Amino acid sequence: MHPIFEQALAPWTPPAPPVTLATGRVVVHTRQPNGSQLAIPTPGPYAMTPAEWAEYKGARDDTK
Q1: What distance in Å separates the CA atoms of residue 53 and residue 42, rounded to the nearest whole number?
Q2: Strands 37-42, 26-31: parallel, antiparallel or unpaired by DSSP?
Q3: End-to-end CA distance of the chain
């Protein structure tokens, strides 16, 4: 079976929980139609500073 069909038929998993950064911004995760998750920092611009990105990656790595 083609991988795109396997992905479409895979069981649904809820999005990851929000991550609160030291700057006060909260990164929320939304499910996308293709099954992936999009991490959106709020409030403010979608772009994260290098420090925010490093903190977010560290927080996500701790949850695995």
Answers
A1: 13
A2: antiparallel
A3: 29
Structure tokens at 54: 């490093």
pLDDT of residue 7: 67
| Beta-bridge partners for 39 | 29
| E-only strand ranges, the chain | 19-20, 26-31, 37-42
Residue 38 bridge partners (DSSP): 30
Burial (0-12, 13-18, 19+ Cβ within 10 Å), 19: buried
Chain segment 39-63, per-residue pLDDT in tens: 899 998 888 999 999 999 988 776 5
pLDDT at 33 over 60: yes
